[in-house]
Amino acid sequence: MDDLQGKHIVLGLTGGIACYKSAELCRGLVKEGATVQVVMTAAAEQFITAVTMQALSGRTVYTSQWDAREPNNMPHINLSREADAMLIAPCSADFIAKLVHGRADDLLSVMCLARPVDRVPLLVAPAMNREMWAHPATQRNLVQLSADGAQVLGVGSGFQACGETGDGRMLEPAQLLEDLVASFQPKVLKGKRVVVTAGPTFEALDPIRGITNHSSGKMGFAIARAAREAGADVTVVAGPVHLDTPRGVQRIDVKSARQMLDATMGAVPTADVFIATAAVADWRPATEADHKIKKDGSGDCPTIHFTENPDILHTVAQGERAKQGRLFCVGFAAESRDLAANAQAKRERKGIPLLVGNIGPTTFGKDDNEMLLVDASGVQPLARASKLSLARTLVQEIAKRIPA
Ligand code: CTP
């Protein structure tokens, strides 16, 4: 919840119905610890009041270049110098066109132009009707805006306020928040491909029942998010979990260990890093009944025979790429006792350079964790923290160990 602690964000609003989402975005920024300075264009004021944005940000809103509150009468300089980032949400087609031409005829556009480009990143969240979005002029402008160094966040697709359906909706506040937080993370995995397994597997007994475990997938999803934030191209192979896919991460849903193995083997041939966080069921019922196994009235219980599942991590770690050092494999060990000794033995048994140990029962389903990093040089404890913060630390540790 403190992902933007100490950051000062200029939140710019331009004209668009999506301004109603900017109220929630502003609240989200504040909740993450940011201070927020809202700047609105005259068109934005047609959609939402400065009073609303002032109440949510806890600061008076700026709307005019000629705001006499600034002693030097230069709000465009003062406000843009203070910022750690500027986020324009919603960013209208007209405002995008203005940015591309370097026009500066209102406070927000002059701030975008006056900001120190090396120090203050500009992120824009477009919002417009689908025809305006698809128009060659808008698409051309977006290419130019990116070339000029702005980070153009995507758009959502779906029902639009005008009654039409298509691309051009502003992203949801939570998505924009995730993108903004990501923009501050060091890009230590830029250009790398990362594959993560996450969650439990489900081994069917019959069409109704099966064997699974308490893994929530939270750690794996946090690692997928952290790797993406660090600039990697990320695929998460997920067992049955109820989690939102992190922004920009490709997700392959599977159920059983064998499906997880197939999906993983399909994804790793071009990967640089493989991180196995999934709590893969070690065994599956030897046979899967076609129909529900019924009580027969005798009081006898059915006997279930098990067969061993493939070890996904071991299989990947034995592959050519891993053996040649082109695929860096990371394992997790969920233990219930003797963590350091078990984790060290497991790292060697799995034949991998890095293993993360944790105590399973104290982490399953939780939002925080404490871990041990185990490699050939020894054991390094990582103190209790949120899973996302531990995931970011792990990503940095992995980045140190792989070729640039
Ligand atoms: N793993 C895997 N495929 C399996 C079993 C485990 O890929 N069939 C991976 C897990 O994702 C994890 C690591 O291997 O990264 C260790 O998992 P864990 O269940 O702790 O170890 P096991 O090898 O199953 O050993 P044991 O259950 O005996 O402790």
Helical amount among residues, as a percent range? 25-40%
Structural class comes to: alpha/beta
- How far is it from the N-terminal to the C-terminal residue, by CA? 31 Å
Output the radius of gyration: 25 Å
How many individual β-strands? 19
Largest sheet descriptor: 8 strands, mixed
Supply the number of helical segments.
15
CATH architecture descriptor text of the largest domain: 3-Layer(aba) Sandwich
Bound molecules: cytidine-5'-triphosphate
Poorly predicted regions are none
Strand content: 15-25%
CATH homology superfamily name of the largest domain: CoaB-like
* Shape category: elongated
Q: Determine and state the CATH class of the largest domain.
A: Alpha Beta
CATH topology of the largest domain: Rossmann fold
Structure characterization notes:
The chain is of the alpha/beta class and 404 residues long. It folds into two domains: 176 residues, Flavin prenyltransferase-like (Rossmann fold), CATH 3.40.50.1950; 200 residues, 3-Layer(aba) Sandwich (Rossmann fold). Helices cover 34% and strands 24% of the residues. The protein is built from 15 helices and 19 strands. The strands form five sheets. The chain has an eight-stranded mixed β-sheet, sandwiched between helices. A five-stranded parallel β-sheet has the order 2-1-3-4-5, with helices on both faces. The longest helix is centred in the C-terminal third of the chain and has 15 residues. It starts with 7 loop residues before the first strand and ends with a helix. The structure holds cytidine-5'-triphosphate. The site of cytidine-5'-triphosphate has 16 residues, from helix 11 and strand 16.
